[in-house]
Write a structure and sequence with these properties.
The protein is an alpha/beta fold and 560 residues long. The protein has helices at residues 5-25, 28-51, 55-60, 73-86, 100-107, 145-148, 157-167, 181-193, 207-224, 245-249, 279-296, 321-333, 371-378, 382-386, 416-423, 439-453, 457-472, 502-511, 536-559, and strands at residues 124-128, 131-134, 139-142, 198-204, 232-236, 269-271, 300-305, 309-310, 316-317, 336-340, 365-366, 395-398, 410-415, 481-487, 490-495, 514-515, 522-525. A seven-stranded mixed sheet has the order 4-13-12-10-7-5-6, with helices on both faces. It has a four-stranded mixed sheet with strand order 1-2-3-16. A four-stranded antiparallel sheet has the order 11-14-15-17, covered by helices on one side. Bound molecules: pyridoxal-5'-phosphate. Pyridoxal-5'-phosphate (PLP) is lined by residues 206-208, 211, 240-242, 306, 311-312, 340, 342-343, 399.
């Protein structure tokens, strides 16, 4: 039941009234089309009526005829108006039977939330530019860019136009045995944007699915080449790769709650992530991975990791030297290397893809490290710094910002070598989701990539970075705060303790006009950075709100 009955009923009544005039005015063709529309809407409304939404309706429903039985426009109008009158609630906005928020509270399951006692949700009426507009009239500056995806902001005219234009052609057709321009254009754009060796693109539904596809590719590659022992993955602790079972198996075992699903999850090999952003941390981690491979390398299909930034597993940054070292280690052992750039891809960290980072571009800012320490630690081998493409993985996972946050789409990009390995002897790659290559999503992604590549995205990311540093740095002085860190358009304030009361914090932020979603010890923002309406004032307000929450957290702890 997606819409409250009242809304559907009154929409139907309006449509019927309009169509009634149109019919009277003329045109048999438009009357036929409209009458088709009534039938669709009428039966939706009738369905809602049958479902019932309150005691008063239950009493009245038996008297109502289904709208689809109306034989004339005037009869339909009468039935629809009768249906609208059925809900006796004085104020549909607060009616616990038919308001959409009440339906949401009673029946919709939200992410990482109780199924019976969920945290409050804030109803959003629309979104534009940098803002989420709530049903109650408040507008919030969005510091989350819809889980890091809406890099151009909301209701961007170019993206809106791309969706509408594609909609007028087709919204979806299967990709098995068929193809179309939007998918083909997107595949071409991805091949151009990613390192030269990445030539084959599998379009799929979401980030998690793109990780599943990557894992499957890696295992199938070794299997087809005659090595069926290689079914394990090496992954970093604090990593996050999605919520489907394959992806979960390579997420941090504690954050990913492996114990709850232990019977179902594949057992993988975990190594501690680099402790910090220094060269030494990266080299230590590479040694640990090398040691793990020394023990069990022959079972391993691939090493999988998020380059430079570990996102949902802790918002941690690490030195690009690790990527270079892993490339060498994997090559030596015939193991594939998978980069999960679902969060970092499309400019978020200050390069198009995080795999491109080198000594000149890797500029994290830490409240507790001096510029000098960071500069020294950023030095890479000259060879590493000179590599044009950055480190080239065997498989690259993309998602989130690929459509500018407009709709769900993932992509798994791989090399000729992997493709040859899987299909060189005639084998087929065993995956094929229903909505693979969805034309609406692909057309939007092409428009989003064109927007990115034709805009000064690097200047925009650097400007956002500068304001995040300036506005969040004061939080580092608070006793409640362990560290503030910034990389590209990512700002993180790590507290000493997990936030005391998430819903209270969120309510305070919303009254401040800011949308953020802290988790654990982390108050963080990944705002839009390529939105035409974005100003430094918006970013500053987000940074200042984070400082205020951190300060309040400190006071709460003192009071306790
Ligand atoms: C690095 C990374 N990989 C995979 C995923 C899963 O993507 P999705 O939520 O689109 O399935 C996420 C989502 O946050 C992510 O950050």
């Amino acid at each position: 039941m997606a819409l409250p009955q009242r809304q559907i009923s009154s929409a139907t009544a309006g449509l019927l009234r309009a169509s009634s005039n149109a019919t009277m005015r003329s045109a048999t063709a438009s009357a036929t089309m409209l009458s088709h529309r009534y039938r669709q809407i009428s039966s939706a409304a009738a369905g809602l009526l049958r479902a019932g939404c309150g005691t008063s309706r239950k009493l009245l429903v038996p008297d109502l005829r289904p709208l689809s039985t109306a034989t004339s426009t005037s009869e339909s109008v009468a039935l629809v108006e009768q249906a609208s009158a059925v809900c006796a609630c004085p104020d549909p906005a607060t009616c616990t039977k038919c308001s959409y928020t009440a339906v949401d509270q009673a029946h919709a399951l939200h992410p990482y939330s109780s199924m019976t006692n969920p945290l409050p949700t804030y109803p959003v009426k629309s979104a534009s530019g940098v803002h989420l507009h709530l049903e109650d009239g408040r507008s919030l500056i969005d510091g989350m860019s819809s889980w890091w995806a809406a890099v151009h902001g909301y209701a961007h005219p170019t993206l809106d136009a791309a969706v509408q234009s594609q909609l007028s052609q087709m919204s979806h057709v299967m990709f098995g045995g068929l193809t179309h321009r939007p998918a083909s254009e997107l595949v071409g754009r991805l091949v151009d944007l990613t390192p030269e060796a990445l030539t084959k693109v599998f379009l799929c539904d979401s980030g998690s699915v793109s990780v599943e596809v990557a894992m499957k590719m890696a295992v199938q590659y070794h299997y087809t080449l005659g090595d069926s022992r290689r079914t394990k993955f090496v992954s970093l602790r604090n990593g996050y790769h999605g919520d489907t079972f394959g992806a979960m198996s390579v997420c941090d075992p504690v954050n990913g709650m492996h114990s709850m699903f232990s019977g179902m999850l594949a057992q993988q090999i975990f190594v501690d992530a680099p402790a910090g952003p220094t060269l030494g941390d990266a080299e230590h981690c590479a040694r640990m991975i090398s040691n793990a491979l020394e023990q069990r390398g022959e079972e391993v299909a691939a090493v999988i990791l998020e380059p430079i930034v570990q996102g949902a597993g802790g918002m941690r940054f690490y030195h690009p030297r690790l990527l270079h070292l892993l490339r060498e280690i994997c090559d030596r052992r015939g193991i594939l290397l998978i980069f999960d750039e679902i969060a970092t891809g499309f400019c978020r960290t200050g390069t198009m893809f995080a795999l491109e980072h080198n000594a000149n571009t890797f500029r994290p800012w830490y409240s507790n490290m001096s510029e000098h320490e960071l500069e020294t630690s950023a030095n890479l081998n000259t060879e590493d710094s000179q590599s044009q493409d950055g480190v080239v993985p065997d498989i690259l996972c993309l998602g989130k910002a690929i459509t500018g946050g407009y709709m769900t789409l993932g992509a798994t990009v791989t090399t000729d070598r992997v493709a040859e390995g899987i299909s060189g002897t005639g084998g087929v790659f065993m995956h094929g989701p229903t909505f693979m290559g969805n034309p609406l999503a692909c057309a939007t992604a092409v428009a989003s990539l064109n927007l990115l590549t034709s805009s000064p995205w690097l200047d925009n990311v650097l400007a956002t970075r500068a304001v995040l540093i300036e506005s969040m740095a004061p939080a580092a002085e608070l006793d409640s705060v362990n560290e503030v860190r910034v990389l590209g358009a990512i700002g993180v304030c790590e507290l000493n303790e997990p936030v005391a009361d998430m819903s209270a914090i969120q309510a305070a932020l919303v009254s401040d006009g800011i949308w953020l979603r802290p988790f654990g010890k982390l108050l963080y923002t990944m705002p839009t950075f390529n939105c035409p309406q974005l100003t430094s004032e918006h970013v500053r307000k987000i940074g200042e709100a984070i400082c205020r929450v951190a300060a309040k957290e400190g006071q709460n702890k003192v009071r306790i």
